[in-house]
Amino acid sequence: MMNNDQGLVVARRKHWSNVIHQELSARAASRLLSLLDHLNDHILFEDKPVSSLGRRHHAFFVRFLKKASHALQKDLLLFDLRLEWNEVSLLLEGRKSAEFASGNKEKEKGVVVFIRHSISMEAKEYGGDASTITNGGECLDEEDRLWLIETIEAKLQHKNVFDYERLNVEVLKSAIKVLSFVQEQTGYVLDTKKVVHGEKLHIEPDDENIEFTAEHQWNYSASSSGVVLFPDANLFTDEHWKYWKEVRTSHKVGSRRLFRDYEFRVITLFHEVIHCFQGHKWVFEDFKLWQAEFEASYSQLDLLHLAANVVDTDNEIWRDGFAEESMLWLFDLVREIHALIKEETCDSKKELLIGYEAWVSSHGRISPVSQSSDELFEQNKSHNTYLKCRLPLEVFSEGQQLVSYFKYRWCADLSTKDTYNMGHQVPHDLISAFSFDQ
Q1: Do 146 and 169 lie in a common domain?
Q2: Which helix or strand (DSSP H or E) is residue 407 part of?
Q3: Helices 55-77/322-342 angle, 10° precision
Q4: Could you tell me which of 202, 317, 341, 310 has the C-alpha nearest to residue 264?
Q5: Residues 128, 179: one domain?
Q6: Residue 414 burial (10 A CB sphere; 0-12, 13-18, 19+)
Q7: Can you tell me the distance from the alpha carbon of 66 to that of 81, in angstroms, rounded to the nearest whole number?
Q8: All residues at 6 or more sequence positions from 352 whose CB lies less than 8 Å from its CB, including other chains
Q9: For residue 130, is it within any domain?
Q10: How far is the C-alpha of 159 from the C-alpha of 26, rounded, in Å?
């Protein structure tokens, strides 16, 4: 006969497995996975300080917790678990106590997170004797956390778990709605004649030129004609997936989260809709299209925030923290690629990171690399993604800077470098705002 502890673990995981595969929706499972992923990054034990991943990462995680807390509590109750968390003052690595004590503590915020068992259990139900095991205050241990992660991944690693077409259509509707809001706030600086609409990239698996079509069908794109193209990952073949794997070359779970990645990739639509309004003044040989990419990347997360929290709050997609969770996912993606860049040769790493700083400080008027945006996309999809996705994380201002930025960018004469107003400042100290150790 197994002892009480063994019986409890076996029966508990059997119950949890049934919940994951029979009761938990794909959205709820993905949301819970985001929490479990970051639990060890932020948990505080009595004998350990909270781990330091930098202010901004903590900020994105706290945003997710605040917006998704109610939904997460409901999800965890199915497992007889409960969530406890609160913000705390955080002493970051490398900062002396005296500096911290004399500084602004409000800028140094961390978060304490616990997942606890919520009920007492009868051991007899789990293969033990008739005694009662009380674990009402016991925290979820590391073995159970990893088991839950692996089981949820198994649920989400197949096609047709997510309805990408519906998700893309709804998010694009929100993106178009928030652009109308920006138009009103800026005095209609965008082209009022432009009509944005979306089209799904149609994938024909039997096409003889599948490698060519796959190369263009795995990603999002847009044109100045107002057409936004979005993929449906449920139709992907191995040829399609190989391009996304070039971006996630060190994905910590291999192929088990590829389908889930495309759940969050829908926020790319807030980048692409900006391209629909960009005309001739963004397309110069000297700028290699990087000015256009700066514009779209700068706006992406502020537009997402306004859609989810100001303009389209009634949309079911945004109610349970999906926008905030997507931002956290994007941060983790950039952090993963950054770790790879640090392992590259000194010259390669230095060129990309210095180029990024020049691109940001010049508002996109200095190209970050020698190649055009399209050329870098073909040669190194990971670096291309890094540049376009790091910027929105650093300039994110909850939409507060977006209106003034649009008024300046879309009304200024940007036809030559000489007429560019270099005195206009990016509203954040971008380079120092991020926590990456370069």
Answers
A1: no
A2: helix 402-411
A3: 130
A4: 317
A5: no
A6: buried
A7: 18
A8: 341, 368, 369, 383, 386, 387
A9: yes
A10: 12
Q: How many domains does the chain have?
A: 2
pLDDT tens digit sequence for 347-387: 777 789 899 999 998 888 889 999 988 889 889 999 999 99
In whole angstroms, what is the distance from residue 183 CA to residue 23 CA?
43
The domain boundary, picked from 131, 156, 181, lies at 156
One-character DSSP codes across 64-118:
HHHHHHHHHHHHHHTTTEEEEEEEEE---TT--HHHHHHS-GGGSEEEEEEEEE-
Give the mean pLDDT of 293-313: 95
Rounded Cα–Cα distance for residues 298 and 320 (Å):
25
| pTM of the predicted model over 0.70 | yes
How many angstroms separate the Cα of 203 from the Cα of each of 21, 231, 324? 29, 9, 30
Strands 221-222 and 132-133 turn out to be unpaired
Taking the mean position of all CA atoms in its chain, how far away is CA 246? 18
With vertex at residue 325, the alpha carbon angle to CA 237 and CA 39, rounded to the nearest 5 degrees, is 105
Instruction: Among 127, 156, 185, identify where a domain stops.
Output: 156
Burial of 198 (0-12, 13-18, 19+ CB in 10 A): buried
Tens digits of residue pLDDT in 121-172? 444 444 444 343 444 457 888 899 999 999 999 999 999 999 999 999 999 9
Give the integer Cα–Cα distance in Å for 267 and 168.
Answer: 9
Domain-located, residue 438: no
> Running DSSP on this structure, what letter comes out for residue 254?
T
Q: Does any domain span residue 400?
A: yes
Which tokens hold the place of 288? Answer: 């290699």
Please tell me what DSSP assigns to residue 397. Answer: -
Indicate whether 51 and 69 sit together in one domain.
yes
Backbone angles phi, psi at 396, to 5 degrees: -55, 125
Q: Say which residue the tokens 């602004």 belong to.
A: 104
**Same-domain check for residues 151 and 222:** no
Tell me which DSSP letter residue 128 carries: S
Residue 112: give the domain boundaries. 4-156
Q: Which helix (H) or strand (E) holds 222?
A: strand 221-222
Residue 173: Cβ within 10 Å count? 16
